[in-house]
């Protein structure tokens, strides 16, 4: 089974790109972020014609998350994170699909730092960590997938010295990411590519994609029940080179039907404890 996450940066404006990618790569389950569309403008019919059912949590002009599936019925289990009844941002949707619980998320950007947006980011991250703890304790096969807006280590950002004051690279945010991992989650992409320069986002400015001046901010985190089934993790970076495309590229994993034995890589193990 192939499960992907993709920040589409406007699901209607970039619908041709999304449909082209779905047709060419045929992922089974997809988490989308930054729909930038209210619920009534989500392109359900076009996606259904492409073979995908969907649940979505939209918002006018900003945010918005969705889960697509061609691998079975989507049973929505949660819309929004617990912990703040006044939070109106559409940033989290959760559903059971084909025996796996999927949490699709769009973590706040947090800039400028310091300020109220950064405080909101940290508070939202704390709420995610609290909710994720319960998911881990359940023992269920769970994936948290989406745009986390955090580069965990210096390996995940081009010229990290330029990002020291940015909310995506702030020590507090990176520490929160590792607090999440310490619950027992596996960073799928970094586990299978422990030493590679690998990015998921390239800015539209300064020819960033051509120079490979990117960031790794889109992640798929696996609970222990799924870590044993991980066989591949890749970035479809070529999609970032298409016309009128998002500034993110799709990231995907493949899971086997049964647990697989994989040699332990020292660098991958070290990554989980590198906090700088």
UniProtKB/TrEMBL annotation:
Enzyme class: hydrolase
InterPro entries to which the protein is assigned, alphabetical: AP_endonuc_1 (IPR004808), AP_endonuclease_F1_BS (IPR020847), AP_endonuclease_F1_CS (IPR020848), Endo/exonu/phosph_ase_sf (IPR036691), Endo/exonuclease/phosphatase (IPR005135), ExoIII-like (IPR037493)
PROSITE patterns: AP_NUCLEASE_F1_1, AP_NUCLEASE_F1_3, AP_NUCLEASE_F1_4
Site-annotated residues for Interaction with DNA substrate: 248
SUPFAM superfamilies: DNase I-like
One protein family per Pfam: Exo_endo_phos
UniProt KW keywords: Hydrolase, Magnesium, Manganese, Metal-binding
Keyword Metal-binding applies: yes
Cofactor(s) the protein requires to work: Mg(2+); Mn(2+)
Enzyme Commission code: 3.1.11.2
Note on how the cofactor is bound: Probably binds two magnesium or manganese ions per subunit.
GO MF: DNA binding; double-stranded DNA 3'-5' DNA exonuclease activity; endonuclease activity; metal ion binding
Location of the active site: 106, 147 (proton donor/acceptor), 248 (proton acceptor)
Example of a GO biological process term: DNA repair
Database matches in Gene3D superfamilies: Endonuclease/exonuclease/phosphatase
Domain Endonuclease/exonuclease/phosphatase: 4-248
Name this protein carries in UniProt: Exodeoxyribonuclease III
Family: Belongs to the DNA repair enzymes AP/ExoA family.
Binding positions for Mg(2+) per the UniProt entry: 7, 34, 147, 149, 247-248
Positions of the record's site feature: Important for catalytic activity: 218
Organism encoding this protein: Sphingomonas tagetis
Positions bearing the site annotation: Transition state stabilizer: 149
């Amino acid at each position: 089974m192939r499960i992907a996450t993709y920040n589409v940066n406007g699901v209607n404006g970039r619908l041709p790109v999304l449909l082209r990618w779905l047709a060419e790569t045929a992922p089974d389950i997809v988490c989308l972020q930054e729909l930038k569309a209210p619920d009534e403008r989500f392109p359900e019919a076009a996606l259904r014609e492409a073979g995908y059912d969907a649940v979505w949590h939209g918002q006018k002009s900003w945010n918005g998350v969705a889960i697509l599936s061609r691998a079975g019925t989507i049973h929505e289990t949660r819309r929004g994170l617990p912990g703040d009844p006044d939070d109106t941002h559409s940033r989290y949707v959760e559903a059971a699909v084909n025996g796996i619980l999927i949490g699709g998320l769009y973590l706040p950007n947090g800039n400028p730092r310091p300020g109220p947006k950064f405080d909101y980011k940290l508070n939202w991250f704390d709420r995610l960590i609290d909710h994720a703890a319960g998911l881990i304790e359940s023992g269920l096969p769970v994936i948290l997938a989406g745009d986390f807006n955090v580069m965990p280590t210096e390996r995940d950002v081009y010229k990290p010295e330029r990002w020291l004051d940015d909310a995506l690279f702030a020590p507090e945010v990176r520490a929160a990411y590792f607090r999440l991992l310490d619950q027992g989650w596996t960073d799928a992409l970094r586990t299978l590519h422990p030493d590679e320069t690998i990015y998921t986002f390239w800015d539209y400015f300064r020819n960033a994609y051509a120079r490979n001046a990117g960031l790794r901010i889109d992640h798929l985190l696996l609970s222990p029940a799924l870590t044993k089934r991980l066989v591949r993790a890749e970035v479809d970076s070529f999609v970032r080179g298409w016309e009128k495309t998002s500034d993110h590229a799709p990231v995907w994993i493949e899971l086997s039907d049964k647990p697989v034995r994989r040699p332990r890589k020292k660098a991958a193990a070290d990554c989980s404890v590198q906090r700088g």
